[in-house]
Each structure stands twice: as structure tokens, then as C-alpha cells.
Amino acid sequence: xxxxxxxxxxxxxxxxxxxxxxxxxxxxxxxxxxxxxxxxxxxxxxxxxxxxxxxxxxxxxxxxxxxxxxxxxxxxxxxxxxxxxxxxxxxxxxxxxxxxxxxxxxxxxxxxxxxxxxxxxxxxxxxxxxxxxxxxxxxxxxxxxxxxxxxxxxxxxxxxxxxxxxxxxxxxxxxxxxxxxxxxxxxxxxxxxxxxxxxxxxxxxxxxxxxxxxxxxxxxxxxxxxxxxxxxxxxxxxxxxxxxxxxxxxxxxxxxxxxxxxxxxxxxxxxxxxxxxxxxxxxxxxxxxxxxxxxxxxxxxxxxxxxxxxxxxxxxxx
Length: 318
Hints:
This protein is an alpha/beta fold. The protein has two domains: 6-226, TIM Barrel (Alpha-Beta Barrel); 229-316, no CATH class. It has helices at residues 13-19, 45-55, 78-87, 102-119, 138-151, 154-158, 182-194, 209-217, 227-240, 243-256, 273-280, 288-294, 300-316, and strands spanning 6-8, 25-26, 62-66, 90-93, 124-127, 160-164, 171-172, 175-176, 198-201, 222-225. β4, α4 (102-119) and β5 form a beta-alpha-beta unit. The two termini are 20 Å apart. The mean pLDDT is 97.
């Protein structure tokens, strides 16, 4: 398995079409692409995997945050995971949103890995979670990996390929608000290496290329980037649209309510129309009303593609 340094969230069909031509992996969340639905191009798990693999069968697809309470509705995540075992390469097992207690999260991780492994002996796994869901110390990460090695069958543990490390990343609106801690990165990467796994960090959006390169130089194997690509595409539309179409774009975003999870308390959308579009524009790209707007602009796809390529070139050269 060739491990790319960059994993991209499929926030739109445009980013998928561009990114699949690069040496990157995809990290669909359950809200983006799930067994029965998704806000991205109306893909489900099967159709998304088929679309990506038709271009390059070796492109890695990693379910991001697979597990309970990670989809668009409240559930135990098992139906989603079962479909993932059929079509994806790796599943990020993440029960930590529901289980903040270490022992509970460990038990659920073992349960979900076992469930998936019994469905497909060739499925691989990513374990741990990002800082915004449940902070981990290097000691706790070592305890998690040690307990998984002890309690899972040898072949099952051998299918764990990635562990999530934390060095201070967090997102709010369209900003990186985390406090980067290089020493913690070094310590957590070493823990992962002690178990012969690959290290991956989440929420790598809005970080300067020099810092990302530094993280790679310190031993980080790969990093996830997702909403930043949605912002790039949304900015293209804001630049190209007429004032009337920008207003309609805003109304679609406002009505989606997808912006609420990303903003601070007291955020007034009517006073921050452009900011709201920048935060959640990508959630409405697949709306029929938005597609109707796009039909007015002949060269908009090429414009978006150029901007996305610039960013991917910058990242894949690190």
C-alpha cells in the first residue's frame, strides 16, 4: 500500500475530478458520502468508490470518522461501516464522539474493528481521533495502541495501518485556530512508529505550507485537508457571480443551516453574508438551485479547476 502524504476531503465533484489526477487519497466523511446519501454530488458509498477507482484503482479511499453519531442522522454506524467494508480501502474507526471515556472508547473501537474485519478480512483501519473530538496525550495514544494489540487477534491488529496524532489543529469558520506543538507531534509520531504504523493528522486546513513541510520533516506521514478546498471553490463563485446570484448563493447557504457548527456563538449571518458563504458554500454545490446558477457561467468550471490545481500542486510538492 502506497501511502500518500495528502488526503483530501471530497467536498465537491470538482475537487474529486481534479484531485484524482494527483497522488493523493480521499477521506469522505459520512455526511459527504454515505451508504444511502451524501451532500456531495448525490454520491453514495458505492457510486463514489466506483467513480474514483474507474480513473485509478490504486487511489486510496479512507472512510473518515466511521462509527456512531457521525452521519447526518443519529445511529450506531454499523450499516454505514458494512457498506464501507465492500467499497473502501481503509476505515477510520472513530467512536470517540460518543465515548469520551478512554475505556469506553477503547471497547467500542475493538467492537467496531471486529465487526468490520468479520465482514472483510482485507479491510484496513485507522484508529484514534482528532483533537476537537477527544484530546489524546502521547501516553494515552500508546495505551490505546497497546490495548488494541493485546485484545485484537494478530491478523486483525495487523490490518491497522494508520493512527491519528495530535499536535494542535482545530478549525473555526475559515481559520486554523489550533496551537501547533512540535514537541507533541514528535512524541506522538514516535508512539505510532513504535507500533509500526503510519501517522496521520486531521484538520490540516489553513496551515501554511512551511508548517506542513516542517511536520513532514519531523516524521508525520500524512495530513487530512478538507473544508479549505470548499473555501477555494466558493471564492471562485463569489468572484464570478453577479450580485443577484451571490445573494441567491447566500440564501441557499443560510437555509442549509450547515454553517452553524462552524461559527462562534453570537454569529449574525445577515451581517456576515460573505463569511457565511465562505464557511459553508460547498454544502450547497449539489443543490439543483445552485446548479441552475452555474449554467449562466460558461467558463466557471475551468476557473475553479485552475484554482484547485494551484493548491494541490503546492501541497503535493512538500
